[in-house]
Specification:
The chain is built from twelve helices and 20 strands. The protein is an alpha+beta fold. It is rod-shaped and about 155 Å long. The two termini are about 15 Å apart.
Length: about 600
């Protein structure tokens, strides 16, 4: 009787163990495609009482994850997160610069180089007939296309910087969610383990959270003897220990070219902090690292290149436009340089200031020796002595020179004047064609753009003496237009900017170099992304092969377990029959 009880107990333990194993195998098959799921094993061990086997029991449900492979995958996720972000942003940056010519013509395509080439073409047409209103309008429109594209590209760069800043804030939110999930799972795993319950599924969830966290930022981690997964920054700042330590970051509502990372500043980007400690510099990989580098280095470098182009274009074009005047001459000229009456003035040489009528005939003029005046106010007072001229420093701090007679205008010839290495008109910006100080605000002068003023394509007669009533403005000369064309196509010295070395060449050459530089960075980012994606995929596949579910193997295992279950059931049935036979025999004895 005792032997039959033992046999039945053994059979029931086998049946129970097999039921658990079937359940685990079924779960493996069902979750084969579940991200982060690892193959589970119901570990079976013998039950022994007084040295005699009394059946089997399930000692635990576990999964075997290669820790070195997991660590490699975590690192690969960080690298891929950074590469993916760089690739995405640099692709967008490249698109801002337009497409290059594909037909061999310098005026096709939409890149900056093509737009500048279109302006050069418009000037070439204007040179044949400088007084043509329609050709002047075409040239102004072509120049406006250049300045507009510089502005739009600059605005696009700052928009990308703002997007990166907002994405940092979004990533910090995701990071905090992962940190809290890891902390919560740490607690659950310890509780389940203490109650003797399996924790393998919870560990899978924790590993998935860890991998997601790593894609956002690089981390170091280890598992304690109590089962806690502790997470730190690369430099050892705790992110999860006995609890989660969330990151803090607030994105700026708007970003401009002057916005920089400035700790403690309300106008600059703030640092990413944990418990009041700035960990920004500790984030060296992952999506957040790439976003920081894009926002603070890569995109500002692109802005610097645009600014160098814009500033040199402004300087070169204005140097030429200040040599000329329009016909009819403008009623007044207002400078762009900021001065006051007391501003020190140190000029040399002679400047000619004249009043002419609408037809360009001389009304009055005077040649002024600049070396005789030490302040802007004194110079303005001298200009006031020219018949029919009024000069002053206006309320905005700009030198203004006006013709007082009805229908008359002001014309200037810089002659031999030099102020700070520039001609008189150029120094004060009296006849600037382009306004602005950088790519973000470069523009064609508003009155010329609107058509209320015309291009300064003429020059004031530089003869030693002029006669009142004679024509002194050369409306049919191509001198100024040709000088503009030469300024664009000739050699200009461009300073080092945003990773581009100092160079000498035309404006189309420099614009093409900017576009090529961005295209090169985008191409490199794409290649790195492909490489990192391959590496991450390799590690993920290796980990899946080692700890993932093999459906064929699990199906075969499930079939074997079903046979095992049937055998255990048959044993129980047999033992029950033996019990019945024994009871019957005892009843008839």
């Amino acid at each position: 009787m005792s032997s039959l009880d033992v046999a039945r107990s053994i059979a029931f333990s086998g049946l129970s163990a097999t039921q658990v194993q079937i359940s685990v195998a079924s779960a493996n098959i069902s979750n084969a495609d579940t991200k982060g799921y690892t193959e589970k094993t119901a570990n079976q061990s013998s039950s022994v009482t007084s040295g005699v086997g009394t059946g089997v029991t399930i000692s635990g449900i576990t999964s075997a994850v290669d820790k070195l492979l997991l660590k490699s995958l975590v690192g690969a996720n960080s690298d891929l997160g950074a590469a993916d972000t760089n690739n995405s942003y640099l692709t967008e940056l490249q698109q801002l610069y337009g497409s290059t010519s594909s037909s061999g013509s310098s005026t096709t395509g939409t890149s900056l180089a093509n737009t500048i080439a279109a302006f050069e073409s418009a000037l070439s047409s204007l040179a044949s007939t400088p007084s043509s209103a329609s050709l002047q309008s075409n040239a102004v429109s072509a120049l406006a296309a250049v300045t507009n594209q510089l502005q739009q590209t600059s605005s696009g760069i700052q928009k990308l910087r703002s997007n990166a800043d907002q994405d940092i804030a979004s990533s910090v939110t995701d990071i905090n969610s992962d940190l809290q999930q890891i902390s919560d799972l740490n607690k659950q795993i310890k509780q389940e383990a203490a109650a003797g319950q399996p924790t393998a599924d919870l560990e899978d969830q924790r590993n998935s959270a860890l991998q997601d966290l790593a894609s956002q930022m690089n981390v170091s981690y280890f598992t304690t003897s109590s089962g806690d997964l502790q997470v730190y920054t690369g430099s050892g700042q705790a992110l999860v220990d006995s609890t989660a330590h969330p990151l803090s970051y607030t994105a700026l509502p708007s970003v401009t070219a002057s916005t920089t990372c400035s700790a403690g500043s309300s106008s600059g980007f703030s640092g990413i902090t944990v418990n009041g400690v700035d960990i920004t510099s500790q984030i060296s990989s992952g999506k957040v690292s790439a976003l920081i580098a894009l926002r603070d280095q890569t995109l500002p470098a692109a802005q610097l290149q645009l600014d160098e182009l814009a500033q040199q274009l402004t300087s070169s074009v204005n140097a030429v436009s200040n040599q000329g005047t329009s016909v009819p001459p403008p009623t007044s000229l207002t400078g762009t340089a900021t001065v006051s009456s007391s501003t020190s003035f140190a000029g040399t040489g002679t400047v000619r200031i004249a009043v002419a009528d609408k037809s360009g005939n001389l009304v009055s003029y005077q040649d002024i020796d600049l070396s005789a005046y030490s302040t802007v106010g004194a110079l303005a007072a001298k200009i006031n002595t020219v018949p029919g001229v009024s000069a002053s420093v206006d309320g905005n701090g700009h030198l203004s020179i006006s013709a007082t007679g009805s229908g008359n205008g002001i014309a200037i010839n810089q002659m031999t004047s030099s102020v700070g290495g520039e001609g008189f008109s150029q120094y004060f910006g009296l006849n600037d064609l382009i306004t602005g100080t950088s790519a973000s605000n470069i523009a064609v002068r508003s009155d010329i753009l609107s058509g209320t003023a015309t291009l300064p394509t003429s020059t004031l007669d530089a003869s030693s003496t002029l006669t009142v009533g004679n024509s002194v403005l050369s409306s049919g000369s191509a001198t100024v237009v040709n000088a503009l064309s030469s300024a664009l196509t000739g050699s200009t010295n461009f300073a080092m900017a945003g990773g581009l070395g100092a160079t000498t060449g035309s404006f189309t050459d420099y614009a093409a170099a900017i576009v090529a530089n961005v295209a090169g960075k985008a191409s490199q980012a794409s290649a790195i992304y492909t490489s990192k994606q391959t590496a991450q995929s390799t590690y993920a596949s290796s980990l899946s092969s080692q700890s993932g579910v093999n459906i064929d193997q699990e199906s075969a295992n499930l079939s074997a377990l079903q046979n095992k279950y049937a055998a255990a059931s048959q044993i129980i049935t047999t033992i029950n029959s033996m019990f019945s036979a024994l009871m019957t025999a005892m009843g008839t004895a």
